[in-house]
Amino acid sequence: MRFTADENDAGRRLDQALAARLPQFSRALVQAWIKAGRVLVNGRPSRPSQAVRSGDALEVEPAAPPPLRAEPEPIPLTALYEDADVVAIDKPAGMVVHAGAGIHAGTVVNALLGRFASLSGVGGALRPGIVHRLDRYTSGVLLVAKTDAAHRALAAQFAAREVEKVYLALVHGKIERAGGRIDKPIARDPARRVRMTARLASGRAAWSEYRVLRRFERFTYLEVRIGTGRTHQIRVHLASLSHPVVGDRLYGAPARVEGLPPLERFFLHAHRIRFRQPSTGEPVEVISPLAPELAAWMASL
Question: Which CATH number is 177's domain given?
């Protein structure tokens, strides 16, 4: 493929300019082509970071990405519930659910493949069995499908918002109301792409309901039920009330709290999930006790 750079390309990194022109390919794949010498600028190999000038002749020789699949690893997992269709695990904080963003080992998927003989293939070779996700530093109950039929049935329940998901969170500040509902759309933060925001009029619809479980001098302990599953939803919604989750520096929480031990994660735990068993339709409720490190930190308050 050949292009001549124009004013829209001028000043941009080479990988950015090509990713914009070739939206069907990921930027990571474009970077791999550049590093492999498959991209020429004015007839010469270049670097992903090279600035493009108007009039530059760009030549691209695409190559398919290498086939990827997750590999089994002997990583311990705690199963909270298991039947022929589904397993619910107790995900520890710090473990990524599946490969991505430079992480290709030590994930929940690697651990699942090391323990279970069969998982659903609906999500592809990199995400076998994964029906929904938890953030890396969120602990708690995570549902996994063993069969394709179970995966589709659970995915339909999630899409119809029939799955009840309840979290425990400790936030900064005193929330005076006994409970409330946050109904704000969530979108990617245009100023900082790793964040989401609830401060724009646009975005995907999202709602969270909270109930105060306990108040401390500087914190409030909450039970949070979500009806949608947007990226960082609880963290974004609570931060929008000026009550960020403890330890969540991305959304405004301080790195350290004076007089208290450091918390090497944020205080958010997937406590309970309720769904219909895919084969029988019977209701199933799975509970994950508050992670020990969070219980110990709260006990110090």
Answer: 3.30.2350.10
